[in-house]
C-alpha cells in the first residue's frame, strides 16, 4: 500500500473522484469540455494533491498541498451547484455528492490541523 493510501482524507477523496466521474457520464456531450471536464479535474486535483503532498518532505509542504486540495473542493462546490441549477443534476444526486464533498473537506481539514499541530510541537 502506498503511504497516501493509508490516509483517510485520500480514501474519501478517491471516492469523490469516482463518484464525480460516474455522475458526469450522464452530462450532455456539449458539456464534455465544460462542466464535465472541470468537475472531473477539480475532484481529481483534491485526491492528487493529498497524494502528492504526502510524499513531500516536511509538514509545511504537506500543508500547502492540503490547502490546494481544499481550494479544489471549493471549486468543485461551485461546479456542482451550477450543474444542479442547470438541471444537469437531480436534487437528490446533488445532495449525495455534496454530503460526500463535505466529508472530504472535513477530513482533509482535520488532517491539515493535525499536521500543523504536530509541527508546532516539534
Characterise the protein shown here:
The protein contains 4 helices and no strands. The protein has 122 residues and is mostly helical. The two termini are 27 Å apart. The mean pLDDT is 94.
List the helices and strands and how they pair.
Layout: H1 8-24, H2 32-54, H3 59-85, H4 91-121
Helix pairs in contact: 1-2, 1-4, 2-3, 3-4
Salient structural properties:
single chain; 122 residues; mainly alpha; 80% helix; elongated
Could you tell me the radius of gyration in angstroms? 15 Å
| H and E string | HHHH
Kindly estimate the percentage of residues that lie in beta strands according to DSSP: under 5%
* Uncertain runs: none
The average pLDDT is: 94
What's the helical proportion of residues?
over 70%
- Subunit arrangement of the protein: single chain
Q: What shape does the CA trace take? A: elongated
Question: Whole-Å distance between the termini?
Answer: 27 Å
Number of strands: 0
Put simply, the count of helices is 4
Note the main sheet.
Answer: none
Structural class: mainly alpha
Give a quick precis of the structure:
80% of the residues lie in helices and 0% in strands.
Amino acid at each position: 500500500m502506498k503511504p497516501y493510501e493509508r490516509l483517510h482524507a485520500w480514501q474519501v477523496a478517491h471516492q469523490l473522484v469516482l463518484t464525480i466521474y460516474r455522475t458526469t457520464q450522464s452530462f450532455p456531450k456539449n458539456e464534455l469540455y465544460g462542466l464535465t471536464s472541470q468537475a472531473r479535474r477539480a475532484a481529481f486535483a483534491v485526491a492528487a494533491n493529498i497524494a502528492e503532498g504526502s510524499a513531500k518532505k516536511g509538514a509545511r509542504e504537506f500543508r500547502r498541498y492540503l490547502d490546494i486540495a481544499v481550494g479544489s473542493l471549493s471549486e468543485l462546490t461551485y461546479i456542482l451547484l451550477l450543474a444542479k441549477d442547470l438541471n444537469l443534476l437531480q436534487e437528490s444526486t446533488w445532495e449525495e455528492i455534496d454530503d460526500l464533498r463535505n466529508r472530504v473537506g472535513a477530513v482533509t481539514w482535520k488532517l491539515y490541523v493535525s499536521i500543523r499541530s504536530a509541527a508546532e510541537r516539534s
